[in-house]
Amino acid sequence: MKNVFLKKPIRTLVAIGSALIMFVFLYNAGCSGSGSGSGWSLCNVPQEASLSSATRIGGATTSVGLFSSDDAEWSLFNIANELRATKVGTTKDTEYAIKVPGLIRDIEIVTRDDKRVALLAMGDEGIAAVDITDPSAMSVITTVKVNYYQDGISWTEGGGDVVIDNVIQSTRGPISSLAVFDDGNPDTPLQLLIADEGYGLHKTALDNLLDETTGREPDGTLLVEQEVYTLQYAGEQSWGGPKGLTLYNGKLFVAQGYLGMGIFDPISLEQVGRYNLYTDTTEANNGEDWFIDMDPVAAVQTGNIDACTGMPDFNQASFEIQQVWHGDVVAPTPWADFERYGKHYYDARKIEVATFTGAGPDKTIAYIAYGLGGLVAVDVTGYDTAISRDPVTCNPVAPAAEQTPFLEASYLGYVPALPAHGPDKQTGEQSQSLFPYFGVGMLKEAGVVDVEVNLADNQVYFTDHFAGMMVIGNADTPEVNWHGSAGEDSYDNNTIGDLGDHWPDYEFVTSYDMTPVPFGEETAPAYIFESPILLATGEVSGHGNVLSLTGSFDVANSGSVDVVAASGGGGLSFIDVALGNTPAFEVPVHFATTNEVGAAADGSASQEINIGHTEGLTAYGSHLYLADGPHGMSIWKIADQNCVATDDVHLIANTLQSEYPVKIDDTLTINPTPHAHDVILDAVSGSALVMSQSRGLRRVNISELGTAGAPTLLYPNSTDIFEHNIDSGNVVDFLKMQDHVYDVALKGSLVFTADGSNGLTVYDLSKDPTDATSGYIVSNLGGDVDSQPNLGHATGVALWKNAVTSKEYAFVAAGQAGIGVVDVTDPNNMILIKVFEPIKMEDDHVGKADGKSVAVKVVGNYVYFTYDSFGVVVYRTADLIAPLIEGTDPNQIWTLGGGGEDQRPNAVARFKLQDPTLFGLVDLVGWAGGAAGMDVVQVNGRNLFYIAYGDAGVIKVDWSNPAAPVLLQHTNTVGFAYDIDVVNGRAYVADGGGGLLLLK
């Protein structure tokens, strides 16, 4: 028996007569739990799993809604795809629940025909209508998907060629938000406004949603009566998909993500106004945004601007790829800089609007939750009489009497988002890319998420991913009062290097003091403790998410619930706010995402368990090991002592549900496994190795586990923490960026880690990591960014030994760089063989695959790589390790446009779920989703692949013939399927915001 096994080993079943013979690896945490057992145990005997039925544990809370019933206020919220209702109060009341097909992203409550109905936006699953007239007996009225179609689109593909007349279409439009519009005319039915991130805006009569006979298209999707396309393409990733809808005084304010804010007439759906922080060149904000004082019009090549959005267009994208990246032209690259580095600072998610009246003219302000750009206030006065532009040229049209021109909203002021925890000093000669930054995995969620206005008290309530709920005063005068006490443009936060090098990532802020000060277990900018900020709660049971102000809102006094706030993977909180002389808050009621009881820092069974950030897992024997981001690692009993799978799954051990150490006494510190991304088991040490984003690799002893209701607290000792960028600085000179461990492969005591922008890093687990001179950091390839080779952004690694030459290789999923091959025969002197992006044919044009490689698996003499942009590609090991022509740069084995022989290997096969020409299904054309994690089980000579397919769920593929995969089964999941593992005839899925999914 081997003394080492890798994450998700390929398990093989050999049939001999009627007996199944399987030599079983047993240790104290194994399937018997006693350290002894029989070789005839069923533990880890490979079995085929079905994907037919599912049970979910946990999930994220991403939406809230409030309504009154029987003189009581109720809150609606979700745990993944489960809609829950409970009374609002300072004591916890009964929860009622009902399931719908998709993860709930928005709740709109409407009264119709004496019924109170909750309209739910469910992403790709469309819309659900739920009767909540009696909250204790909710029932689903209908569910329906939404289609879209748009042709004539031009974009630039990954090789730099402009591709015209593209078509986007789907019967699964990703629905993000809903609003019901009443134009005041009794002859006009109520209208349902729909935000579709894959297309734009749809509108139909609300009756069409509720009528399953006349309210459907021939394909079964919702009958749409009117729509407008709002997207822009430059590259192959769209901008402008609507994320949030806000109806205000007869106009529709739309949060359009990377295109900022759009204002639309809800009757005609014509756009009558906009604001985009990125294209705002008025400098009213003193350049306080990621690109400081850049003017996109001046930065692009002449004319390469979209006339309607002011953003770089597809011609600019083509120029940058072909002429700048692959040519000798020296020129600005605003499209690439925005798409790769800065776009999360321009991500409009939610809008709230308020009008202020007084001695002077009325003023209307829109408050935009702008992601990492912060909370941005803009003047939209005149929105109600603004008219649309010319539909072809997008030039303003002269207004008639009592009309105003197309509204270009003007900047008034802002509050910075808390930085995405970038380093506070330069750690290496890196580009401006955010990839090396701490917390990169949370960039899409970081920043300001939601916003509400308390008009009576002239305050704005908003949520920040890291700061929790915040309150700012002077809502009516942000242009005057939204700055620190020293005054506007009075703070120099550019403490390192030149302005624009983004060290740190808040260097452009001049209106607030960004000096880090202690805040709980970490630091936060000083401004959140100073006027005009009235309150910053910090994280309340998790990261700040959506919120609603209650009907009992009274912040002058304590003792009532003022705010209902979600924490994403941390559940829902009722918050009592008191903004007196000493602002404070309490959380009298909290709803966790599971009913499990975990071990607290003192070891007692008193810790609530929240699951909702699941990204990685490993199952072995009777146990499942789950990585859930800030909640660390948890262990679940999934089978009995004979490894017969059970539906009664419970937690039996956990690390801290905190990201920070807890000191018990002078001799004992309980360390967490923060930002847990994935888990691997190490048979040598009888431990779990937890991949902790930004904090390296953490080894956890799993020899003693508890039981349901009496879980064991697990934690790494100081000698179990392996990282190369510690709080005091870099441990070795050849590694200067922070740890980002995405995947691990073991070879004896050596662990090869896919280390993000650092490439491939090797640790020796037999050495003492508390001693920097012990040699626990063995070597690295790809971390020295001043030289070649470079392994891109490594997220997957697998080892393979050539039986003929005895050479050993690491195959690396290198992110946007594609596929890496490294000779690791001598771990102290690793040699890059090649890095390349797979061949992609566009008609007769030879190009490269777009997107990023994610994970890698070796099966026999074949290597399989998952890609987030399409699916899976497989190569022969012999082709991957084949030597290059002498003198070839291993990073340049093919050059766009020629200039040398194309030495990229041909793939044996390429699989795409949504493409029937690539072994997929015609019924899934138009679905979102790309491949992520995978597992392989070998049963009676068949190679069965189980693949986590992101937004498309999970699939089972018979890949016994490497050149001809056969799709056997597809099952959609509620969240984003990151990882999958199969054991004991069951499949277990890390489903992101969908929690932990059990399939059988």
From TrEMBL:
The chain crosses the membrane at residues 12-30. The keyword Membrane applies. It comes from the Bacteria. Keywords: Membrane, Transmembrane, Transmembrane helix. InterPro entries: LVIVD. It holds the Pfam family LVIVD. This is LVIVD repeat-containing protein. It comes from Thiomicrorhabdus immobilis. The lineage of its organism: Bacteria, Pseudomonadati, Pseudomonadota, Gammaproteobacteria, Thiotrichales.
